[in-house]
Design a protein that fits this description.
Elements lengths: L1 E5 L6 H12 L3 E3 H11 L2 H10 L7 H12 L8 E4 L5 H13 L6 E6 L2 H9 L1 E4 L5 E3 L18 E2 L6 H15 L1 H8 L3 E5 L4 H12 L2
Parallel strand pairs: 1-3, 1-4, 2-3, 4-8
Antiparallel strand pairs: 5-6, 5-7
Bound molecules: adenosine monophosphate.
The site of adenosine monophosphate has 18 residues, from helix 2 and helix 3.
């Protein structure tokens, strides 16, 4: 099963992608997580990516495509994957379609987790992330057991630079300009499915399961 998650930053697509990955035994591939891991390790790619990420801008397609195409060659992708945060531009989506076509493959679904901007702004202000293991929380909707501490590794939780209020608005603007056109792109391919992302996490997942098990 090959799935693309669509939705604005903060719509909850990462949380849903992790749940899909666990349920269907496929890897969850998040370009944002891969970039953040590279930043933490101080790699060349990380240095280049952070210049864009900290400003709420997209990392250039060339760098992103290089990274994701390499990831697809790993053994764990044999039975598919759930992509979270990729593709984010029409050029990336076309590159993905082409590379799959060459291998005689195609995506199964593009799932749009739909949430209005006003709700996104509210949600993102409460997001906290563990810089050690990448665990994500929300002060209201998904709090850690102990305030400020990661349940998974005991690391300290903080606000990601790109979740700060001024960056959030920039990321939403970038989403509408560059990523939202993918909704039409996948709708034309007949694989777009939309779920109401304002529901509870479990309800959103149930809607997704109904689509994937249909
Ligand atoms: P995310 O964790 O998916 O919200 O991604 C965080 C940041 O990483 C984004 O705001 C972009 O700067 C960068 N990024 C992640 N995925 C992509 C992509 N497919 N294309 C370009 N930039 C990306």
């Amino acid at each position: 099963m090959k799935i693309v998650m669509l939705g604005a930053p903060g719509a909850g697509k990462g949380t849903q992608a992790k749940m899909i990955a666990a349920e269907f035994g496929i890897p969850h591939i998040s370009t944002g997580d891969i970039f953040r891991a590279n930043i933490k390790e101080g790699t060349e790619l990380g240095k280049k990516a952070s210049e864009y990420m900290e400003r709420g801008l997209l990392v250039p397609d060339e760098l992103t495509l290089q990274l994701i195409m390499d990831r697809f060659t790993k053994d764990d992708c044999a039975n598919g994957y759930v992509l979270d945060g990729f593709p984010r531009t029409i050029a990336q989506a076309e590159a993905l379609t082409e590379s799959l076509k060459k291998a005689g493959e195609a995506l199964d679904y593009a799932i749009d987790v739909d949430v209005p901007d006003s709700a996104i702004v509210k949600r993102m202000g409460g997001r906290r992330a563990c810089l050690s293991c990448g665990g994500t929380y929300h002060v209201t909707f998904n709090p850690p057991k102990k305030e400020g501490i990661c349940d998974l590794c005991g690391g300290k939780l903080s606000i990601r630079k790109d979740d700060e209020p001024e960056t959030v608005q920039k990321r939403l603007d970038v989403y509408h300009a560059q990523t939202q056109p993918l909704i039409d792109y996948y709708s034309e391919q007949g694989i777009l499915r939309t779920v109401d992302g304002t529901q509870e996490v479990g309800e959103v997942f149930q809607s997704i399961q109904e689509i994937l098990n249909a």
